[in-house]
Specification:
4 helices; mainly alpha; 91 residues; Rna Polymerase Sigma Factor, Chain: A; two-stranded antiparallel sheet
Length: 91
């Protein structure tokens, strides 16, 4: 469940404040890294996937759902990027 500070960080990120994206990365990066490790297994690849997911979130500001009252979207972005990374390693 997102907090008031999550809402504020997303609002600042949407307005173009990079520091707000950093706040969200600090708050959710470890959780997403763990998820990424389950998908790609390799630590360096997991780091790359999480970084790409946050970059995508920065571009689309898809992290916060007021209706759901929580941070969303990052896991879907991360999963797609992780699957792409895994597929490219197999090729």
């Amino acid at each position: 469940m997102a907090t008031g500070s999550d809402r504020a960080a997303v609002a600042r990120m949407t307005a173009g404040h990079r520091a707000a994206a950093g706040t969200l990365f600090d708050r959710y990066g470890d959780m997403l890294y763990g998820f990424a490790r389950c998908i790609v297994r390799d630590a360096a690849d997991a780091d790359d996937v999480v970084t790409q997911a946050f970059a995508g979130a920065w571009q689309t500001a898809c992290f916060y759902s007021e209706r759901e009252g929580k941070v969303v979207g990052s896991d879907g972005i991360l999963q797609r990027r992780g699957q792409r990374r895994t597929a490219s390693v197999r090729e």
